[in-house]
């Protein structure tokens, strides 16, 4: 009687249990990948919070003089984002100038970062001249600060302490000649709010 043999290149089909384990494993990997992607995207758009370090950046002013945020460590930094086309920014600027004149000698540094893009950067010099601004105006026409600062809009101000930590975030314009607007600033500067001269409110 002839003996039947199984060819060497023929393999047995996987068991139903093994197939289920394989599908479960692939499904788990896909779920982890989707969860990670969603988490990364949410973290990308999560705004900065008080108590976090202010992201460093390097920008130039209208005369191409470079400024780096970290160079002002040891001082209180008033970091304001604005644009020439922003009406509330225009309304806020005079009180920022008053703030600069009152507290520059106490260690306050005001950095006004224009987010005007290439098409409107030509409007920055006449804006600054018309407002008689004396604090540094930096230009970010390529959006270098967009991603790290995750702004909600303009104007938006970050008050940064001597260690580079964000102590206050102000979304929208504020009258910086009002005493109730200066509480955190004057506390960081260790000066009395009464030294602020009131200017015209808006």
Write structural notes for this entry:
By secondary structure, this protein is of the alpha/beta class. The chain folds into 2 domains: 32 residues; 138 residues, Glutaredoxin, CATH 3.40.30.10. The protein is built from 5 helices and 7 strands; from the N terminus they run H-E-E-E-H-E-H-E-H-E-E-H. The protein has a 7-stranded mixed beta sheet with strand order 2-1-5-4-3-6-7, with helices on one face.
* Number of DSSP helical runs: 5
Q: Tell me the fraction of residues in β-strands, as a range.
A: 15-25%
Tally of individual domains:
2
CATH class of the largest domain: Alpha Beta
> Which term fits the overall shape?
elongated
- The residue ranges in which pLDDT falls below 50 over 5 or more consecutive positions are 38-43
Biggest sheet: strands, sense, closure?
7 strands, mixed
Instruction: Give the radius of gyration.
Output: 28 Å
Topology as a string of helices (H) and strands (E): HEEEHEHEHEEH
CATH homologous superfamily annotation of the largest domain: Glutaredoxin
Distance between the ends: 108 Å
The largest sheet has its strands arranged as 2-1-5-4-3-6-7
Q: What is the typical, i.e. mean, pLDDT?
A: 85
- The percentage helix is 25-40%
Q: Which architecture of the largest domain per CATH?
A: 3-Layer(aba) Sandwich
* Named CATH topology of the largest domain: Glutaredoxin
């Amino acid at each position: 009687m002839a003996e039947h043999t199984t060819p060497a290149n023929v393999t047995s089909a996987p068991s139903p249990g093994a197939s289920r384990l394989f599908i479960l494993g692939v499904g788990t990997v896909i779920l982890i990948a989707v969860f990670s992607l969603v988490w990364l995207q949410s973290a990308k758009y999560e705004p900065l919070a008080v108590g976090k370090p202010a992201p460093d950046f390097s920008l130039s002013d209208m005369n191409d003089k470079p400024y780096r945020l970290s160079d002002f460590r040891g001082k209180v930094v008033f970091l304001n984002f604005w644009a020439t086309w922003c009406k509330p920014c225009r309304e806020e600027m005079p009180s920022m100038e008053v703030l600069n004149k009152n507290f520059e000698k106490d260690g306050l540094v005001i950095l006004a970062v224009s987010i005007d893009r290439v098409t409107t950067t030509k409007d920055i010099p006449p804006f600054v001249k018309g407002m008689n601004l004396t604090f540094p105006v930096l230009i970010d026409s390529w959006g270098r600060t967009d991603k790290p600062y995750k702004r909600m809009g303009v104007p938006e101000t970050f008050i940064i302490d001597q260690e580079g930590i964000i102590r206050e975030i102000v979304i929208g314009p504020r009258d910086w000649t009002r005493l109730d607007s200066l509480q955190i600033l004057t506390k960081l500067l260790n000066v009395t709010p009464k030294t602020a001269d009131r200017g015209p409110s808006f």
